[in-house]
User: Fold these one by one.
Assistant:
Number 1:
Amino acid sequence: MNKKHIMILGVGNILFTDEGLGIRIIEKLVDKYDFPENVSIQDGGVLGMNLLGVISETDYLIVVDAIKNKGTPGTLYRLEGDEIPKRILAKNSLHQVDLLEALTLCQALDKVPETVILGIEPKDIKTTGIELTAPIQERIDALIDMVLTELDGLGARVRLKGGNYLSCA
């Protein structure tokens, strides 16, 4: 059976408090869960355009990031389709703009993955520090649940390390 390739891509800069959210989620996913062969986990950091190669090789892309949307810190977001360019263009960090450009360039390669962006409204993305702020830490499990639900909807069966398969139904 030919399963579609799914990539979970965490982006952000871990040196600026909540800006590192995507990377912190990737770390927790890798530490806590086992994924099927067709699911890859990628720490994208702030690579932006340098991710074009790996992005163009996937069928379904789940991006995890801080999403600045002028909402209350800790608000969860799920963006897809036309929502993505509007929200990313309003971002203050360059990696989101580079990510949008990389997705746009995938069109030239005729290999644009179906993309969803999951994230949390940050409290602070400018202060130097490696710890997430309290409102963001409180929402980490909810964001991980969103990622797992997304995978479940794509038919990817995830297991706790050394444990049973999860069901998000």
Number 2:
Amino acid sequence: MPCTVSRAVSLSVESPISAFRVQKAKTNGTLQLSNGSSVQGSFFVAGSSAMHAGPERVKDVLNAEPGFFPFEVLAAGASSQTILYNREHVVFVELTGNYEAMLEPGYQVAPSRAAEMLLSSGTRLHGVVRIYRPQGSDRLSDFARSSDQFLYLETPAATYLVNARHLIALVEENS
């Protein structure tokens, strides 16, 4: 005869916060997705990064691991909803008024190149990229061989994080 055990479990709504919980801040951004849609919302970033000194950046979140990342979207009635988005289907992210690229080590001395990017969505972005490579390996082609999936492109109005897997053509422009 099968034996079943049932146990009453009482969970407190006011349970203590876990020592493993990481407080996150929100950073606004707009996702441009491979289906042509655009989604405005917020990324969740930690106050410190395991990869570098200082706070976690949106680029860290996007390049951290494959698969999905959480993104908070304002739903109807001004309530928010956290949706998991697949990195592979994000063509680029627009960070308006966010200059996190300037926090990269060596930003001030890295060679910059004016570039045009043609993306799989048909969008063309124009801006400046910085190449973090040793002298002699600081061409636009070296930038394109970065191991990061998401790369910075800067304009006066916004910082873009472009998914290199959606990058069709990269052209150096005369500045």
Number 3:
Amino acid sequence: MNNKLKPALIGGVVLGLLSVIPFVSAVNVCCCLWAILGGMLATYLYVKNSPTPASTADGAILGALAGVVGALISLILGIPISLAMGPTMRNLILSLVERLDPRQADMMRQQFEAAGTAIGPVIINAVILAVLLFVFSIVGGLIGVPIFEKRKGALPPPPPNTSGGPGAYAA
């Protein structure tokens, strides 16, 4: 299990950090792409250093471990960042919508003001994101095994012949 921990930690840190960095985290809108890539990275690092072929179970375990690490990072760092960046993101969204349809922007502004700056929705969104990161990193780990594991049917090399040479009789 220890040889899986280091790749999973690296994959989880990458997926967790990329999932909480403002604007970079928007890539997760595309099927939790950072989570999938974090699970795949963990699998890649494991396959690269593993003396035996990796199985799909290895990929699932690596993805799950990376997902747990990434989800924890997302929760610990994501909530404060969301609270700090919330007003900035709201203003950005409002300015974009205002260019397209000023009436729609006014309606959104009213909805944002009515919602206020409650911490409850931020926590709920962070928990939902953490669950999604976990699930999709498992998917990434499973996808990574067939992509990176090229030793699929490879059997370990046979043991050396210690019988004394060709045709020798071993008792």
